[in-house]
Structures are given as C-alpha cells and as structure tokens.
Amino acid sequence: MGSDKLSAATYDPVRSFLSYLLFLLVLFLSACISDFYPVIKEEKELLVVEALITDQPVADTVKLSKSIPLGKVSEAQPLSDCFVTITDDLGNIHLLREERAGTYITDSTTFKGEAGRIYTLHIRTSYGSNYESYPMEMKQVPPIDSIYYEKTVIKEGVGVFFRIDGCQIYLDTHDFTNNCKYYRWDYSETWVLRLLFPVVNQTCWITEKSRPINIKSTAAFNDAKIIRHPINFINNVTDRLKRKYSILVNQYSISEDEYNYWQEIQNITEPSGGLYDVIPASVQSNMMCIENPDEKVLGYFSVSAKTSKRIFIQGDFRGIIDRYNNCVTGKIYSFPPEGLGISVWILDDEPYARPPYWLVTDDKGCADCTVRGSNKRPSYWED
User: Fold this and answer.
1) Cis, bond preceding 355 (omega within 30 deg of 0)
2) I want to staple 207 with a disulfide (CB 3.0 to 4.6 A). Which of 109, 190, 289, 366 is the partner?
C-alpha cells in the first residue's frame, strides 16, 4: 500500500510527456543538420584581379579570374582572351601579353615602374566588359636596414637534451624623409633537404613563398623607424632548420588605401569564426566596371616600389623534426623486388654483404628528394 502511494506521488504525467517531446526534438534536429550559407546580395561570379607592378627590371604580372559562388569548393576559373594595358601619367600605353590562361605579363625590356609615376590598369574582357583601376602613384621605398634572427626556446629540456628550439626572424628599416608611411612585406624561403641514404637524388633545395599578410604603418609615429618587426617564425615541426636555411624578404611601399585593403583581407583570412565575418565582396577594390560602376570587383591593382634583402641561417637548433627516420620499410634478399619503381624504391644497396641485401621503402619521398624540391642548386646559394 505504501509503495503504491509513493509511485502515485512521484509520477508526473505532464513532466513525462514534456521529456518525451524533448527527446523527439533532439532526435529530429540531429538528423537534419546541414551546411548553412547566409543569404547575401552578391553576384555568382565576380571578376578577380591580382596585379602588382614594381620598379624592378622584371616582368610584372596581372592575373584575372572569375570567382566561385559562395558555398562551392573549387578553384577560381582563369579568365583568358582579355585585352590588358597599363597607362601612365605621361600618356604611355603598355600592352600585356597572355603568358598562360588568365596570366598577363609586361615586357621587361620596354616597361619598368618608376617611383613618382601614376599608373592605371585597363581590362577589356572577351565578353565585352571594360574595367579600369583608380590611378595609383608608385611611392619610393627605403632600403631594408637589416634582417636578423634570434633562437627561441619552445620547450626547455635538461641542458641541451630534449630541448626544442625555434627561430624568430626580424627586420629593421627606416625612412627619415617620412615619405613612405605604409609598408607591406612578403618573402621567399629556401632550405636544404639531404636524405639519409645514398640515393641518386639525395640533396635538394626546397623553395616556398610566404602566405600571411604582413603590413605596418608609421603614420602615427613622429620617428619613421621600424625596429624588430617580425617577418617569420620557424618552429621545430618543419625541417627548414635541419641544415641550412635562407630567406629573401621583399619590402614594398603602399598607399593608405592599399594598406586598408590588406587590413580588411586579414579579417577574412584570420576570421573570428562568427556568422557575421567579413565576406569577400565587402572588401573595397580599386577596380571598377566602366559600364556598370555598381558591379563588384574583387582584388587590387598594386603599384609599389620594392627593395629586397637576403640572409642565411645555419646553426644548432635542437629538437628539429626528422621526417626520414622511419623511411626503411623492408629488407630484401632477392633482386629486383616486384613493383620496384612503382610502389617500392631502393634506399641502400649492400651487394657485398653476406647474404647481399637491399633496404627499400614504400615512400618515394624517402628515395628521391625531387618529390619535395629541386636538385638544381640555386644561383644565390652560399656554401
């Protein structure tokens, strides 16, 4: 009797019904999760302009493509058969030729940017639309004073044992004339890869270009000096510091408008993850469509003087990863093995051992350094 009273007192039909509804709701929502793309007023395809001209005696490049609609994973489509010219404030017209699909280059023998000149980019597409940049002045850029590095300790060990080192690269520059107040930097880094085994392609040089946006303004400073500006940090999870490393840093003068453009791009490439992050079409370009000024254009026509400086780094950095310690995947005593050169590669040849044997791997990168780099020594490389 007491047990029946307890059951009646604790049973709540309304609460049980609500719990059942909550269970069904959770089950329904878990089965209906899908990607969400906010509705925005943006054309499905936009012209994308990637253009940079400098005062260096090399071919300058203008890349044209069509953007991909929001939510689709694909590469932008190169835009071919365009008529591309650059004009200056002296009335000169420079025609670019299409080197490959969507890539147009200047003739380095007849065109080189000059500080103080004003340049405008003109594009006529194969479908008849005309685009033009705002007139852009090329501002003088000061030289790089110095590039240097400091070894950093990522993780302490016992003395030098088990310690993990990194490398922070800095730059100093100044412009006492205070004409250049906005800067941008990029770099090209090269390092030596030497495989552990005596294979044909044992030593290579790997070269990669920087990806992060690196800008700074001195407009708010009375003293136009830039000291200890960070250019690149190298940690131990790459083999860049294993043997010898070099970095070529390029310094560009940019306008205030271009500085603001790169700042906005940083908001895209380094988002906070929120729903209302900046979308590409909201970044103000310096390109416009002549026939339809309201049409969005992505990208920027950059006009910059340029200066460069290179350093080499070779030192005792502890804890650097060795990607090739586990290359050996087998030992064979009969030669050649089945699948040689297709799925099996020889690392070491020991024909005079008793019995003779060959060390093999199933990773081609362990037996051929050209998988990652080039076996041709760069002309600038120092011993």
Assistant:
1) yes
2) 190
